[in-house]
Amino acid sequence: HTKLLQLLTTKPE
Amino acid sequence: PQLPVLTPEALIARIMEAEPPDIYLMRDMSGPMTEATVMMSLTNLADKELVHMITWAKKIPGFVDLNLLDQVHLLECCWLEVLMMGLMWRSVDHPGKLIFSPDLSLSREEGSCVQGFVEIYDMLIAATSRVRELKLQREEYVCLKAMILLNSNMCLSSSDGGEELQSRSRLLRLLDAMTDALVWAIAKSGLSFRQQYTRLAHLLMLLSHIRHVSNKGMDHLHCMKMKNMVPLYDLLLEMLDAHIMHSS
C-alpha cells in the first residue's frame, strides 16, 4: 500500500 | 497522550469542516455509453475521490493518533462504503437517479450496459430511498460516514503489544465520541425520547445495508478487473487489492 501510506504520512500543507 | 476532549457540537463542527469538496469527473460524456466507458468514468471518479477521502480521514479528530497500520486497515476496509454513502447523499434529492458527481449521473438504463451492475444500482437506489424517507440531516450524515470509517474493522493490529492495544482503545473512544455526536444531532430535532432512540436505531441499521452493497460492489469491481474490462491504476487498484486480500 505505497500510495495510501504516502498520502497518510504527508503533512497537510 | 490524552485525546483532546471535544463536545459533540465541536466534534460535528470539525467533521463538517473535513467534508471533501464536490469532485468533478471532467470528461466528455457525450459519446455513446458502453460498458467500457461507464466503467472508465466510475473508476476514474473513484480514484479522484479516494485521494480526497484520505485527506478527509486525517481531519477526523483523533484519527491520525491511531497507529499508522490501523489507519491503513480502516481505510482499506471502508473505502467503498464511504464512497457509496457520499453517492447516496448526493442522490437523495433525485429519486430514481444516482448522482456520481455533479457532471456524472446515471439512470438505471445507462447503468444496465455494465454487466452485473444493475443489481448493485438497484440496491443503491433502495438505500437512497431509505435515506430520503428518514430525511437524513447533514450533521447525521457526517457522523454516520465517520462511524463507517471507525467501525470498519474490529480486528486491527494482530499482535497485542502495548502500542497496538493503546491504538485500539483510542479507536473505541473515538467511536464513543462519534456516537455521542450522532445522539446529539438526533436530539436537536425536537423528537420525543422514544422517537430519538428509534431514529438512532434506524440510522445505524442503514450502515449494515451499506456494508452489504459495498461488498457486492467490491466483488463486481474485482470481477471487472479480472476480465480486463477496465484498466485500474494507482490508488484505486491498491485499495481494491488490499480489500480482496483482507477478505480472503
Structure overview:
- The complex is a heterodimer of chains A (13) and B (248).
- By secondary structure, chain A is mainly α.
- In chain A, 62% of the residues lie in helices and 0% in strands.
- The model of chain A has no long low-confidence stretch (mean pLDDT 86).
- Chain B has 248 residues and is mostly helical.
- Chain B has helices at residues 8-18, 35-59, 68-91, 108-111, 117-133, 138-150, 162-187, 193-226, 234-247; strands at 98-101, 104-106.
- A two-stranded antiparallel ribbon of chain B has the order 1-2.
- In chain B, helix 7 (162-187) packs across helix 8 (193-226).
Give the tally of β-strands of chain A. Answer: 0
Oligomeric state of the chains in view: heterodimer
Number of discrete helical segments of chain B: 9
Task: Give the SSE order of chain A as H and E letters.
Answer: H
Uncertain runs of chain B are none
Shape of chain B: globular
- As a percent range, the share of strand residues of chain B is under 5%
Largest interface: which pair? A-B, 9 and 14 residues
Poorly predicted tracts of residues of chain A: none
Radius of gyration of chain A from CA coordinates:
7 Å
Question: How many strands, what sense, and barrel or not for the largest sheet of chain A?
Answer: none
The percent range for helix content of chain A is 55-70%
Strand content of chain A: under 5%
Q: Taking all residues together, what is the mean pLDDT of chain A?
A: 86
Number of strands of chain B: 2
Helix-residue proportion of chain B: 55-70%
**What's the alpha carbon Rg of chain B, rounded to whole Å?**
18 Å
Number of helices of chain A: 1
Q: Which class best fits the helix and strand makeup of chain B?
A: mainly alpha
